[in-house]
């Protein structure tokens, strides 16, 4: 059986690594264009801007970010349910 204190240390190390990765992803930006539309998104799936014909459309950016947030919350809830069923949550 593995040492519980070592497992706790490993878990803390993994959390620290995950936090570092999160910070790095927040700094990344990806830009894509399709026809008249240009989208800029971060590595954490946060929409920075949506432009149509070079004009920023903040309402569309906010709506897409809200949809992404709802989707992520639903996915997190499902994963939490699975974790509980497996006895690891």
UniProtKB/TrEMBL annotation:
List the Pfam families hit by this protein, alphabetically: YbaB_DNA_bd (PF02575)
The record ties this protein, via InterPro entries, to: YbaB-like_sf (IPR036894), YbaB/EbfC (IPR004401)
Q: Name one GO molecular function term.
A: DNA binding
From the Swiss-Prot or TrEMBL record, give the protein name: Nucleoid-associated protein
Native organism: Candidatus Gottesmanbacteria bacterium GW2011_GWA1_43_11
Q: What is the lineage of its organism?
A: Bacteria, Candidatus Gottesmaniibacteriota
